[in-house]
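Email to the structure team, subject: Folate receptor-like domain-containing protein model.

Hi all, the expression group asked for a predicted structure before they design truncation constructs. Nothing fancy, just the tokens so they can compare against earlier work. One-line instruction: predict Folate receptor-like domain-containing protein, return tokens.
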Amino acid sequence: MLVHSVIVTILFVLLNMISGLPYTDIEKKIEGDIRANDVYEYICLQSTTHKEAPGAEKNLTDECSPWKDNACCTPDTAIKALSFTLYSLNYDMCPQKRMSEQCKKHFIRDTCFYECSPNIGPWKEQIESASRSQRFRHVPLCKSECQDWFNACADDYTCSDNWSKSYDNSLVNNSTNGTHICERDPSERCKPFKDVFETAENFCEKIWDHSWSVVDDSEPCMKLSFDSEKGNPNDLVAKKYAFHQFYLINVSNLSPFIVPNVFLIFCMQKLFI
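Reply from the structure team: attached below.
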């Protein structure tokens, strides 16, 4: 990040040398906003399971291990995610068939992303909930990731097409061991994922109430699993979207210096994408 900050400063100096314009308070504000992206990108959701700020967690294992260098989850949260005890939701909700291990693996990856990823800043929104005050919505998920997830779960069963909204907490009782149960008789409502959702895109976008937005792999998009030794590819995705949002916020302030600053925006986008 230091390298990017140095490049930002050099670009401003060069632009002012070329244009002859003074290094004004507006330009200083814009430069500060660009550097502020570091804070905007690397944040954690506000909830009872997330850390206040991301940091190294070298003891993360299995599907949560990709985030060990910079994580919003603790090892305890990760262990609960891996054992399906983090939320009161029964993944084996249908009597016709217990969820397959390959399907569970992808849901665990999804949970690890939600709990551990520090790259959700551009998509966070405020909500009212006992366990969290923020969620993310419309995070760009790579189409190939979505397709792999759907393929793994196609023959498994679900009683709902929106797991965030279609469970009734009032129905939780001792007989269900504290887990959610379907709004109606699961033996009647349960159907294979492939019949309920029909397409991978519909599945990924609806299952968690539009937390995900499926995009082509050629666009900046999130990975649910990656080799941490090669770095986190989602960092650049968050950077691109964060920078775009700062650009939209500050473009109204560019009128006195529209040419040099738009050129700067162009240069910075090429740096961060």
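The chain has ten helices and six strands. The two ends are 14 Å apart (CA to CA). Ping us if the truncation boundaries need rechecking.
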